[in-house]
Design brief:
With about 625 residues, this protein is mainly beta. The chain contains 8 helices and 27 strands. About 15% of the residues lie in helices and about 40% in strands. The strands form 4 sheets. The protein has an 18-stranded antiparallel beta sheet that branches. The chain starts with about 35 loop residues before the first helix and ends with a strand.
């Protein structure tokens, strides 16, 4: 069904695609080619090519009309190609008697709707019944010049939709705007909102909104007999029945379930006018045991790969057990992990025993051996945040080489971790664009274990992402990344390297912090730092090109120190640039950075390429 004009307004049909243009670069002929004889020959060749190209263009312009002499383009009209199936409704099909002669009115009516679907909102089509001819003037193609909203609630803004400005006023563009605008309303609690779009020939696009009132979540209703009970499924849902409705939270819940217990999950709202009647949960469950295989590469760890076997939905609590083998040239690990949820009455409370056998090869040390850890944890969804604290202990018996530290008996270390992230960070984890993520880790070696005074280790890391104007199709993303770590002793003395595990000291450099230096190369004159503080700022421009390549600029800086939160005055700086490209096989990042350590007169360059490393 085509656009129907009502008081200068247009309602949209099905439709098409846009076009882009590029400017040819200017260049100068090499000096060797400017010799008169050579230049004259080249000039004749150039004229021949131009003549041939011009003839080809004119032939294209005088190409056969739409349907011979029966349906023709008006002089000066832009010509739009028809797909084979669409041409049947305009020109008919001589091979089928019923389609051999399409009435002129039918051809004109279909062309009118077809052109409007392509963004030509005011085509001029005339019918000469005496000559049995239809003449078509497509007119000017309309583009989105401005987006306006009528009856919008205070929480709604058209800013996130403005990346559609300049796009053709066609069905594909309008469908995208309609879906995005509805999602924005449902993010702000308007679960039963509806809207209509009205397109104007001058490029105005009006979103007529019927938002209704803000709703709170209803208890989800499972649409089937599932192998996992509703109390267990609620473990993955970041909302309670009295929270304000937010469609992003249903997307997060579906993503969590698909990663743990189900193969696909979908939430739908059932409304009658402005009454929120039901929140339906639809899920499909595959086999409880799965295999995962992943491969990648980077200039820091070269080829890397993992193999993971998981068994989900263990017992009534839907607990999980997995075995994973990971390998690179720097790290190798075989781990066995059970995440045991205690009961349906407390579906988020769990015990997590982990047994791992690891080998790590750094320039400063080489370590290998087994480690057993036992943690108790619980996740919390608080408003727009998810928190996941864990408390427990680890028993390790690691063998170290290339260091002063020697120890044969096991080390028992109490541990505490606290992870936290916003809903936006979790929702866009596969395509980072906005949100905040942070992680705090505390570990303690008692004095009896350290054969000296007790040593505490604290490490805080995090990432903040800002999306300019919250564009649904981002155009500028600013990322800030930070790391703060320190070793401190109970009496304030400098940690003794001969009595502290080497991997407790901090190393910086590489893609995770200071990108102008090679992996874990700082401090260059020590086996590790007792304190470290780094920060990185990265500016990325998605959608700048028509192909999937996002350029980026960044600046990293940091300090190192001896421990107890003491830092040297020497700052290490690392500016650089790079690019990011999302592909079906994973994200590719490439960066070039310069590393500056002025106090030691060190200046170096570093190139990094990887799959999957994100900011």
């Amino acid at each position: 069904m085509g656009l129907r004009k009502r008081f200068g307004l247009y309602r949209w049909p099905s439709g098409a695609s846009g076009r882009s243009t590029a400017r040819l670069p200017h260049f100068r002929l090499p000096e060797a080619l400017t010799h008169p004889v050579v230049y004259e020959g080249l000039n004749r060749l150039r004229l021949l090519l131009i003549s041939s190209l011009t003839a080809a263009i004119l032939n294209g312009c005088s190409a056969p009309e739409l349907c011979g002499d029966r349906v023709v383009w008006a002089p000066g009209s832009e010509r739009i190609g028809l797909e084979k199936n669409d041409s049947l409704f305009v020109c008919g099909d001589p091979a089928h008697p019923a389609w051999q002669d399409v009435p002129p009115r039918q051809s004109a009516s279909f062309l009118h709707s077809y052109l409007e679907s392509k963004g030509y909102l005011e085509p001029k089509i005339t019918i000469d019944y005496d000559a049995n001819r239809v003449t078509v003037d497509a007119g000017k193609r309309a583009v989105v010049a401005i987006i306006l909203a009528e009856n919008a609630p205070p929480e709604f803004s058209v800013d996130p939709l403005e990346t559609n400005l300049g796009q053709p006023l066609e069905k594909g563009t309008l469908d995208r705007i309609e879906g995005d605008a509805l999602s924005l309303l449902k993010t702000e609690g308007y679960a039963c909102a509806t809207l209509k779009l009205e397109a104007h020939p001058d490029g105005r696009l009006v979103i007529k909104i019927n938002a209704g009132s803000q709703k709170t979540f209803l208890r989800p209703v499972s649409m089937g007999d599932y192998p996992v009970s509703d109390p267990i499924l609620s473990r993955f849902e970041p909302f309670d029945s009295d929270d304000r409705y937010d469609i992003k939270k249903t997307s997060i819940a579906a993503s969590r379930m698909q990663g743990e217990v189900a193969s696909s999950v979908n939430y739908t709202t059932v409304c009658k006018d402005d009454d929120f009647l039901k929140l339906q949960r639809s899920a499909a469950f595959g086999p409880p045991r799965t295999w995962e295989i992943g491969v990648g590469a980077s200039t820091e760890e070269y080829p890397l790969a993992f193999i993971r076997w998981k068994s989900n939905r263990l017992w009534k609590s839907a607990s999980k057990f997995q075995i994973e083998l990971f390998g690179s040239n720097k790290r190798q690990e075989l781990s066995f992990e059970l995440k045991y949820y205690l009961s349906e009455a407390h579906p988020r409370l769990y015990l997590r025993p982990v047994l791992s056998i690891t080998h790590r090869n750094e320039a400063q040390y080489d370590t290998s051996g087994p480690k057993f850890s036992l943690y108790q944890g619980r996740s919390f969804d608080l408003g727009k945040w998810t928190l996941a604290p864990e408390v427990g202990f680890s028993v390790s018996r690691l063998r170290y080489s290339n260091s002063r530290y020697t120890r044969t008996e096991p080390i028992v270390t109490p541990e505490f971790t606290l992870g936290g992230h916003t809903n936006d960070y979790e929702l866009y984890r596969g395509d980072p664009r906005r949100g905040f993520d942070t992680h705090l880790q505390y570990t303690y070696v008692p004095s009896a274990q350290a054969s000296s005074i007790g040593v505490h280790r604290l490490l805080l890391t995090g990432t903040y992402l800002y999306n300019f104007k919250n564009y649904i199709q981002p155009r500028w993303i600013l990322g800030i990344r930070y790391k703060f770590g320190t070793l401190f002793t109970t009496d304030g003395t400098t940690p003794d390297a001969s009595k502290t595990p080497p991997d407790w000291f901090f190393l910086v450099g590489g893609d995770q912090d200071l990108r102008g230096f090679s992996r874990n190369s700082l401090p260059s004159d020590q086996s590790g730092a007792g304190s470290v503080a780094t920060s990185g700022f990265e500016s990325r421009w998605p959608g700048l090109f028509s192909f999937p390549l996002d350029p980026l600029l960044f600046l990293d800086a940091g300090y190192v120190g001896s421990g107890n939160s003491h830092f040297s005055r020497e700052v290490v700086v690392s500016p650089g640039f790079g690019a990011r490209s999302a592909t079906p096989l994973g994200t590719i990042r490439a960066t070039y950075a310069r590393g500056y350590q002025p106090a030691k007169n060190i200046y170096r360059s570093q190139v990094f390429v990887s799959f999957g490393a994100e900011f």
